[in-house]
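Below is how a single chain appears once it has passed through the pipeline. First comes the sequence as given, then the structure the pipeline wrote out for it. We keep one example in the README because the format questions we get most often are answered faster by looking than by reading.
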Amino acid sequence: MKEVLKLIIRFYLPLIIILPVVIESCAKKELVFKTVENQPAAFSYLPRTEDGFIDWVTAINRGIIKPRDSIDLKPKPQSPPLNLDIVFDSRTMPAVTYPHYQHTQWLDCTNCHPKIFKAQRGSNGITMEKIFGGEFCGRCHGTVAFPLKYCERCHVKK
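Resulting structure:
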């Protein structure tokens, strides 16, 4: 029993404390995890991609983390993940497929809409230059989510 309690204190408590900071920092672009060395020790239990970045989707799918919409003690019921792919056409690359499901497994719609993305087709003016500048997808990708150098993770044919 003591070992279980130690595991909960060592693993889950830091996650409960750090995840809201990570999500908030993602929006502010203050917390940069560009290398494994910059990541808090509490993240050492999380699965990694081949090059060492945290694989958040795998962590959720394996039940390692169970994100919540709120840190309130009595939160309102969470919305189920939205199973919707949005396809953005590109003139020079394969189309981008944005999977809402993976993102809404742990983020509420209001994390992105309407502050980062307007929920109207064609109204955002998304470009790679803006993304690399920290706008749109670049608010999280390249900081707390996988780096932008993996073109094939977004530019996929469906």
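Helices lie at 2-28, 56-61, 100-104, 128-132.

See the next section for the split statistics.
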